[in-house]
Automatic annotation (TrEMBL):
Keyword Transcription: no
Location, primary (coarse class): endoplasmic reticulum
Protein name as catalogued: Lanosterol 14-alpha demethylase
Keyword Phosphoprotein: no
Binding-site residues, heme: 441
Lineage, opening ranks: Eukaryota, Metazoa, Chordata, Craniata, Vertebrata
Length: 500
């Protein structure tokens, strides 16, 4: 091992042990160079005459508000909204972030062109090493839009009908290990289950059948690319996690290439996502290459992994906290599906409207993506302000979903709020867990099918409650805000249903 690699390992171990706050501190010490300061000072001279958004003052050079934001980002942004209004700028790690808070301000991001507010500039350094070249943020946006369209073709109702059966079966199989009663880590279990169900539904039976411990480790190593360290530290550093991510990328793709080759050679066509991609062509008639398909398969799996597993886990805790709501959801299933609860089907799943609203409300209070980000490439006008190029422009679903100008009883988990007239209905971007505009999520319907099937099945199997009434706090140190210490108590409802 070279000295260079050893120092990388030391740095990475330090980063892994640190909280976000100290991570931010460590990173800033590492990156703070005279040259960098010069660049920042140069930028500040070029402010022109336009009226810039109000800036939250900071006396801490370079670090700016990183510590306060890292400790509690939502409280920080809510206070900023109260004090400065819907458009506000502040500095963290030498970068200026401008948040567009509330529906009206957020419209700037969602109606913008990618040339003006650019996604690749902020996301590619995280995604390209994981998904690979030639897909997503590594290609010009019009090409990515074509790729999204191909993926959307594969996410259709005929496929969802098969997915319900698959997900129900995988859920039964997975939760057999939980036994009759106990206390377990719900988030960990749902993360494992979701990778199994997504692999089978989105990659197909061949790839799912290869998902053993070794492949699961490869996914975990790939996923290790989505960390604060990968976002904050330079990509050329010899960090062990970067090396593991890059090796896993090569290994996973080798597996996918073999499966794609077999599919291309098969006499009979399957009817699933992989087949959709094998048969897809760009507008100019060019088919997807094996490498593009493999990159898109990785993207499909990982785009839904943390988002869906975190959402499912939070939903479980909201249901566990409210036993009466749990009972109502169980009764809804009996009314819609029949007293003897036969295997789920897609049409019935759609009719489970209370469960739907529970998911919708979970996504309001705990949207997994707390910030969408773009780089301003051109001056952007919002209200009386002009955001200059170089600002990282952000919209936070979490903040929009709980603004008190918009939502009544804003912090209450109340799935029935959607039955009544709610003030947010008139505001286009008040509820945006899946984003909006050209970068909008294509996985919403699949996520609903997946999470609703898992929870319908789990509610048939178990009765859930919080452990000693403890509802998990939000863990702000991870990129997606996961539940802290996510242990749940469960009791099997009856042995009959578990075998079905
Ligand atoms: C609860 C589950 C999910 C949530 C809350 C969610 C949320 C989001 C959000 C907020 C965006 C917009 C990002 C931005 O504008 O910067 C997005 C984009 C996207 N999501 Fe999801 N997602 C979920 C599941 C999925 C799944 C299951 C898939 C794939 C099957 C998926 C694929 C994508 C893709 C391809 C994009 C487009 C990115 C772009 O155009 O820049 N998502 N998602």
């Amino acid at each position: 091992m070279t000295l260079f690699e050893m120092s990388g390992q030391v740095l990475e171990r330090a980063v892994e042990k640190l909280s976000l706050t100290s991570l931010v501190l460590a990173t800033s010490v590492f990156t703070l160079t005279v040259g960098y300061l010069g660049k920042v000072m140069f930028k500040h001279q070029h402010t022109g005459h336009a009226k810039h958004p109000p800036r939250i003052p900071s006396s801490v050079p370079f670090l700016g508000h990183a510590v306060a934001f890292g400790r509690s980002p939502i409280a920080f942004l809510e206070q900023a909204y109260e004090k400065y209004g819907p458009v506000v700028s502040f500095t963290m790690l030498g970068k200026t972030f401008t948040y567009l808070l509330g529906s009206d301000a957020a419209a700037l991001m969602f109606n913008s062109k990618n040339e003006d507010l650019n996604a690749e500039d902020v996301y590619a350094r995280l995604t390209t090493p994981v998904f690979g070249k030639g897909v997503a943020y590594d290609v010009p946006n019009p090409l990515f839009l074509e790729q999204k369209k191909m993926l959307k073709t594969g996410l259709n109702i005929a496929h969802f009908k098969k997915h319900v059966e698959i997900i129900e079966e995988e859920t039964h199989e997975y939760f057999k290990r939980w036994g009759r009663s106990g206390e377990r880590n719900l988030f960990e279990a749902l993360s494992e289950l979701i990778i199994l169900t997504a692999s089978r539904c989105l990659h197909g039976p061949e790839i799912r059948s290869m998902l053993d411990e070794r492949v699961a480790q490869l996914y975990a190593d790939l996923d290790g690319g989505f960390t604060h360290a990968a976002w904050l530290l330079p990509g050329w550093l010899p960090l062990p996690s970067f090396r593991r991510r890059d090796q896993a990328h090569v290994e996973i793709k080798k597996i996918f290439y073999k499966v794609i080759k077999k599919r291309r050679e098969a006499q009979e066509k399957d009817d699933d996502m992989l087949q959709t991609l094998v048969d897809a062509t760009y507008k100019d008639g060019r088919p997807l290459s094996d490498d593009e398909i493999a990159g898109m398969l990785i993207g499909l799996l990982l785009a839904g992994q943390h988002t869906s597993s975190t959402t499912s886990a939070w939903m479980g805790f909201f249901l566990a906290r409210d036993r009466a709501l749990q009972r109502r959801c169980c009764n809804e299933q009996k009314t819609i599906c029949g007293e003897d609860l036969p295997p789920l089907d897609y049409d019935q799943l759609k009719d489970l409207s209370l469960l739907d609203r529970c998911l919708k409300e979970t996504l309001r209070l705990r949207p997994p993506i707390m910030t969408m980000m773009r780089m301003a490439k051109t001056p952007q006008t919002v209200g009386e302000y002009t955001i200059p190029p170089g600002h990282q422009v952000c919209v936070s679903p979490t903040v929009n979903h709980r603004l008190h100008d918009t939502w009544s009883d804003r912090l209450e988990f109340n799935p029935d709020r959607y039955l009544n007239d709610n003030p947010a209905a008139g505001e286009k971007f008040a509820y945006i867990p899946f984003g909006a505009g050209r970068h909008r999520c294509i996985g919403e319907n699949f996520a609903y099918v997946q999470i609703k099937t898992i929870w319908s099945t789990l509610l048939r199997l178990f009765d859930f409650e919080l452990v000693d009434g403890r509802f998990p706090a939000v863990n702000y140190t991870t990129m997606i805000h996961t539940p802290d210490n996510p242990i749940i108590r469960y009791t099997l409802r009856n042995t009959q249903t578990q075998q079905h």
